[in-house]
Structure prediction request, 254 residues.
Amino acid sequence: MNENLIKEGKFIYASSGEGTPIVVLHGLMGGLSNFEGMFSHFPKHGYRVIIPELPIYKLPLIKTSVGNLAKFLKEFLDYLGYSKVTLVGNSLGGHIALVFQKMYPELVEGIVLTGSSGLYESGMGESYPKRGDYEYIKQKAQDVFYKPETATKEMVDEVYNTVNDRYKLVRTIAIAKSAIRHNMAKDLPKIKVPACIIWGKNDVVTPPDVAEDFNRLIPNSTLYWIDECGHAAMMEHPETFNKYLHEWLIKENI
Prediction:
C-alpha cells in the first residue's frame, strides 16, 4: 500500500476510488496496510476509501491526545473539502471517531467501530513500558489476533522498535492516558447518526462485552460478530468484515 501513499503538505494518506467517502482511522500500533481489504472492495461499489496517517508520533507531547487527533482529522477533511463522511475506526481509531463525532456531529454520516477503545482501556497502555524484552512484545502482538501467526515478524519488529524508542514510547503512554480520560460512556447515548459495530468474538484487548456495551449505549447501532477473530477484524477476516460493513451501508442508505 505504501506505493499508493499521497503526501500533500502536512498530510500523508492513501486513497482509492471515487464516490461516497469512507474515512478509515487506524489504531495506535496499526498501520494503513491493515485495511487493504477495504481498499480493494469498496471502490468497486461507488465509494472512495481514504486512510490518513494519524500524527500519533508527530504532535508535541503536550498535544498528544485523542482530542487533538480528532482536530487533526477535521483539518484533513477540510483540506479534502468533505462536509459529510462515514468514519471507520479500529482500536484507538474508533475512539478518535467517537470524539470527532462529539466535536463535529454535523460532519459525520455514520460511524463504524471495530475493537474500539472509548469504554474499556485495559489494552491501551498499561503494559507497554516493559521495554527491551522481544519475546514479551511478540506475545503482546500475537494476543491481538485469534491466530498468533497473523502477527508477522515485521509487525512484531515495528511494535518492538516503537516501545524501545523513548520519543515514541512517551507519546504512546500519553495517548493511552488521554484515552482513559476520554471515556465516552456518557456521550454514546447522544449519538444521532447510525453506528455499525463489527467485533471479533475472541478479542482479548477489547472483549466482546465491550461491543455489547457500545451496542446498548448507542441508540441507532447494529452489532455484527465475527467468529475466530481477535482485535483486528478487518485484517483477520477482511471478506466478512467488508460483507457486514457493506450490508450496513446499504441498510442505512449511505
